[in-house]
Specification:
Radius of gyration: 31 Å
Helix content: 25-40%
Shape: extended
Order of helices and strands: EEEEEHHEHEHHEHHEHEHEHEEEEHEHEH
Number of helices: 13
Distance between the termini: 57 Å
Largest sheet: 7 strands, parallel
Strand order of the largest sheet: 11-12-10-13-16-9-17
Structural class: alpha/beta
Number of strands: 17
Length: 481
């Protein structure tokens, strides 16, 4: 899972060149970039996000290379514009190419996962926030009752947009716009509008990474120091954090997260399921007094747009999300954490087929950064890599705070045979009786009951089911019922 080193970054042709062309990769299932002409008014760099024509459409794309030059320059279409965003990093572009080669997928299809929110390429529209001015009434301007109500509403509450102000005054937006045209209302500057309206600023993650965490045990502290050292060294290293349930793995890798944030770099934490994020977020908020950026399929388009853009320009320092969060356009990624690395939910089986845990290791290798794989039951693949010396291993063998592991006993049914017409072994029946006598609860899992889980008629397909619900009835052959 290792490729050759990437070559040094290329430069686009200078403005004085008569044949200025670039290769633009589009988020479509295409095998490579298409050549486009660079207008004299544009200066492009590798990784720049641009808009280009493709047939009757205009599509976003990324400047991927210097043009191939296999088509006459006069026949090339021109780049329409460059989006006002930092260019996609060289590591991200190499990662997309690597994933495309490894999964035998067109690189444009992989790029589509990195530009999953095309609307985020556009500059966000600044809200039109209105407030009253001290200007006098213009000559010939008639002050109607509706206009008076709008001015009154604009004076007493917070600064609001045209639609909100019109709704508060019980009139249409044209009344508000008429007051703007007359100079009786003015539009706030963007910075003032953001402060007055309470809209979120560009930094979505204000965290206290210097805040002390909980007191760690000796084993936890030893593992945390090792992870912090890897973050400070800022070199590629894969560490498998193997800890029993309740051993405090999350608090240990939080120390590495704090070290990375203190260094001013970005962090991504991959979780297998969205359902795990609320509990994880509670612990994160307690540790860092703030919330990270979220990335998963249940976000609204506005949230996805805001998060994507904040990651691209570096305003968002830490992201926690599902496997697709790995393909966000990080400008300075310094640490990757894959929690519950053994989970099969990290495998994408539609579109681009990939295992997010393995691709996260590749992303760390390409970027020369550390990665932490955390699990209470590590996958066989990770354990083989540990035994082969490719991954480092940190163990947390005991639960934190003096909690003890449950006692597990295996009952050999050859030695403890159940009584006739019974299926529970005598030691198990005794343990259940003692538990119930103590007023406690017990749970028994059955992998199957009865002779057959359902019965179907071979002629008509009728199935035997409960008369009160749709549950299938189990056939118990010995009891004949």
């Amino acid at each position: 899972m290792v490729g050759s080193d990437a070559s040094s970054p290329l430069s686009c042709p200078p403005a004085t060149s008569p044949d200025r062309r670039v290769g633009v990769l589009l988020p479509l299932p295409l095998l490579g970039p298409y050549d486009y002409r660079v207008p004299s008014s544009l200066e492009l760099r590798l990784g720049d996000y641009v808009e280009v024509p493709l047939g009757p459409r205009r599509l976003p794309g990324v400047v991927w290379s210097v043009g191939a030059g296999d088509l006459d320059f006069a026949r090339l279409k021109s780049v329409v514009r460059r989006f006002d965003l930092p260019p996609m990093s060289e590591v991200s572009r190499r990662f997309i190419d690597w994933v495309a080669n490894y999964t035998i997928t067109p690189p444009g299809q992989v790029l589509r996962m990195a530009i999953s929110v095309p609307a985020a390429l556009e500059m966000p529209r600044q809200p039109t926030i209105c407030r009253p001015t001290r200007a006098g009434l213009p000559a010939g301007f008639k002050m109607t009752p509706a206009r008076l109500v709008v001015l009154e509403q604009a004076t007493v509450g917070p600064a609001r947009g045209v639609a909100d102000l019109a709704a508060a005054a019980g009139c249409g937006p044209t009344v508000v716009r008429g007051l703007l045209d007359a100079g009786l209302l003015e539009v706030l500057r963007p910075a003032e509008a953001s402060e007055s309206s309470g809209l979120p600023g560009p930094n979505l993650s204000t965290l206290d990474f210097n805040r002390p965490g909980p007191v760690l045990s000796c084993a936890q502290e030893e593992a945390a120091v090792a992870l912090r050292d890897r973050v400070v060294a800022s070199k590629y290293a894969v560490t498998l954090l193997d800890g029993v349930t309740g051993s405090g793995k999350t608090e240990v890798y939080f120390e590495a997260v704090a070290a990375c944030l203190a260094a001013g770099r970005q962090v991504v934490v991959l979780l297998p399921e969205i359902s795990l994020s609320p509990q994880w977020l509670d612990r994160f908020t307690q540790r860092f007094a703030g919330c990270p950026g979220l990335w998963h399929s249940e976000l609204t388009p506005a949230q996805r747009r805001r998060t994507w853009r904040a990651v691209a320009n570096g305003a968002l320092r830490i992201v926690v999300g599902a496997r697709s969060a790995l393909f966000l356009p990080y400008c300075d990624l310094g640490l990757i954490v894959v929690d519950e690395e053994h989970e099969q939910a990290f495998k994408q089986e539609e579109g681009v087929v990939y295992q997010a845990r393995d691709m996260a290791v590749v992303r760390a290798w390409l970027g020369g950064i550390p990665i932490v794989l955390a699990s209470a039951t590590p996958s066989l693949e990770s354990m083989v890599n540990v035994e082969g010396g490719r991954y480092a291993l940190l163990r947390l063998p005991a639960r934190h705070g003096g909690a003890t592991m449950p006692v597990v006993k295996v009952i050999d049914l050859r030695l403890h045979k159940p009584e006739p017409r019974r299926w529970l072994a005598p030691p198990l029946r005794l343990a259940l009786a003692e538990t119930l006598d103590a007023g406690e609860q017990a749970m028994v899992f059955l992998n199957r009951r009865g002779y057959a889980p359902l019965t179907l008629c071979r002629n008509c397909g009728f199935r035997l089911q409960c008369p009160n619900c749709s549950a299938w009835l189990v056939d118990h052959r010995k009891a004949a019922r």
